[in-house]
Structures are given as structure tokens and as C-alpha cells.
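TASK: fixed-backbone design
INPUT:
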């Protein structure tokens, strides 16, 4: 490969990992990360500017999650968001990236009915938004839905463990796969790998189960609230950057205090306006 097919987002060519970093992340690169024992990061994104920031920061995968229902629309559940709504966010994220792999969730109700419905919805995300892969909450019984989408040429990330679209069936936001239930999660993961999923996202399960899963699977795993043994980790960006002032799940680590930063800036702007110190002369236009 020629030199310009590489970028060095982690700090220059002296960094071996960066020197080997591809220009555009594809699903086979995530497989290579797993095969070589290298971890990778995923963050959610819902608009072009944040997507561009994360892309340039070297985040390998951006997820246009149905968590948009919560953090973009103020809903308490992910069930309400529609395909047409999530398509707008997905298209915006695609417009903001050069390098990150963009994965879009399929919204609740848009893929559970039949494998055919799953293919038709996934095709819309590929065609109308231009995403690179889709994510589906799935288990062993819905592996045929995943297989149908994969057979249509669309990469699928399978989401197992706690699957928020099933919150009412699962009895709320609860850790999955404890004790004897671990076997079902492993069985789901193996079925979805066999169906052709390129990656398994596992949410809110005990850390030991994630270690067992990552060892049992050929394909990479991405964890959220699932310990440290997965190949990758994902967080919702508003949680991670401290914009969300709701109750945060225990698995969130806050890396910044954006809500404070933005509040301070808003106060300063308002004060300047009220006191008449903004705009200054330098922000205006001369008569000639
Ligand atoms: N802002 C946001 N962050 C997320 O991580 C997220 C969303 N939205 N929306 C979609 C799903 C739903 N997720 C969630 C949301 C809440 C909990 C939660 O409240 N967990 C509690 C209880 C866990 C237990 O003890 O069983 C916790 O304290 O972690 C977990 C997962 C993860 N996803
Ligand atoms: C929390 C992540 C994994 C997700 O599914 C979403 O953002 O919708």
C-alpha cells in the first residue's frame, strides 16, 4: 500500500499501530484487530459535526444508535424512533466521516416481522443514508433475519445480552446472562456468528461471560456494561462527554464535563448581550 493510504491519528508514524491504520475502516479491519489482540473504540454519533470530531480523533466505529430516541428526542425508551427519523441522523453521520466505519441501528419494528422485512429496511439504510453496516438486536431464534440481511450483501452487527428494544419483555434495564442464563447468551452469539454477523455487541452482562464469549467467537465483540474482555468498547457520546444530566448507567465513564462548559459559555454570552459588550466593533461591518 502506498503511504497516502494510511493515516496516523494516534500520534505520528513512530506509532506502529497508527502506521498500520487503514485509510478507511472496514469490517475486515475489525476482524484483524481481534486476530492481532488489538482493541478498538466505538462511539455513538447522530450528526455530521460530532461524527467528524470522532472520525478525526481516530474512533474506529461510529454507531447511529436508536439511543437517538433518548438523547436526541428526549424519549425515555428507544422503541419510539422510526426508520425515517433514524435515516436522517444516519445520513448526517455518513456526511461527516472520512475514515470511521458507520453502523446504523435498525429501529424497533422494522426488522422483527420477517427476514424479508429486515432486508428491505437494511437496504434503505445502505441506499438512502449510505451507512456501511447495520446493527440488529437478535438472538438464536432471529438468526434467520440476520442471515437474510448478510446474504443481501449487508454487514450485520448483532446486539445481544440486554437488548433495549425488548425492555418490556426483559422486565426493565437488567443485567443479562447471570448464572445458568450465561449459556443462552453464548448460544445466541454462536448462532449469530453462524448466520454471518461480522461482530457481536454485548450489553450489560457479567465480565466473565464477555471473556467466555470473546474466546468462543471467531468474530470481534464490542461491550457496553460488559467488562473489559471484549475486543471493543462503546459508549453513548452524551454520557461519555458529560452532556447528559439524567441518571447515568453504572457502566458510563465521563471523560469531559461538556454540560458545564456549555452552560458557562451560555451564561457568558447572555451577560455580554445584556451588558451590551457583545458584539464589539470587530464583529461589525464598516459603512464603506
Ligand atoms: N444515554 C443513553 N446511554 C446508553 O448507554 C443507552 C441509551 N441512552 N439508550 C439505549 C440503551 C439503553 N441502555 C441502558 C440504559 C440504562 C441502563 C440502566 O439504567 N442501568 C442501571 C441498572 C442495571 C442493573 O442493575 O440491572 C445501572 O445502574 O447501570 C442500562 C442500559 C444503554 N443504552
Ligand atoms: C448503547 C448502544 C450500544 C446502542 O445500542 C445505542 O446507542 O442505541
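OUTPUT:
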Amino acid at each position: 500500500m502506498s503511504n497516502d493510504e494510511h493515516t496516523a491519528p494516534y500520534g505520528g508514524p513512530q506509532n506502529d499501530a497508527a502506521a498500520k491504520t487503514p485509510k478507511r475502516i472496514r469490517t475486515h479491519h475489525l476482524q484483524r484487530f481481534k486476530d492481532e489482540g488489538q482493541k478498538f473504540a466505538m462511539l455513538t454519533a447522530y450528526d455530521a459535526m460530532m461524527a467528524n470530531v470522532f472520525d478525526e480523533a481516530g474512533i474506529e466505529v461510529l454507531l447511529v444508535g436508536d439511543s437517538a430516541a433518548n438523547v436526541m428526542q428526549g424519549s425515555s425508551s428507544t422503541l419510539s424512533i422510526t426508520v425515517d427519523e433514524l435515516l436522517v441522523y444516519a445520513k448526517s453521520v455518513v456526511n461527516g466521516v472520512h475514515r470511521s466505519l458507520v453502523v446504523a441501528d435498525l429501529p424497533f419494528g422494522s426488522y422483527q416481522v420477517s427476514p424479508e422485512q429486515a432486508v428491505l429496511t437494511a437496504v434503505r439504510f445502505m441506499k438512502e443514508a449510505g451507512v456501511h453496516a447495520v446493527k440488529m438486536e437478535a438472538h438464536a431464534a432471529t438468526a434467520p433475519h440476520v442471515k437474510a440481511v448478510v446474504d443481501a450483501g449487508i454487514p450485520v452487527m448483532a446486539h445481544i445480552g440486554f437488548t433495549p428494544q425488548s425492555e418490556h419483555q426483559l422486565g426493565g434495564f437488567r443485567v443479562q446472562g447471570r448464572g445458568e442464563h450465561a449459556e443462552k447468551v453464548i448460544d445466541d452469539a454462536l448462532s449469530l456468528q453462524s448466520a454471518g454477523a461480522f461482530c457481536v455487541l454485548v450489553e450489560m452482562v457479567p465480565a466473565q461471560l464477555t471473556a467466555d464469549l470473546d474466546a468462543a467467537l471467531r468474530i470481534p465483540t464490542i461491550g457496553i456494561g460488559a467488562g473489559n474482555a471484549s475486543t471493543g468498547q462503546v459508549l453513548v457520546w452524551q454520557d461519555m462527554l458529560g452532556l447528559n444530566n439524567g441518571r447515568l448507567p453504572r457502566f458510563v465513564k465521563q471523560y469531559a464535563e461538556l454540560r458545564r462548559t456549555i452552560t458557562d459559555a451560555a451564561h457568558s454570552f447572555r451577560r455580554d448581550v445584556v451588558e451590551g459588550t457583545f458584539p464589539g466593533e470587530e464583529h461589525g461591518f464598516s459603512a464603506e
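COMMENT: The chain has one domain: 3-257.
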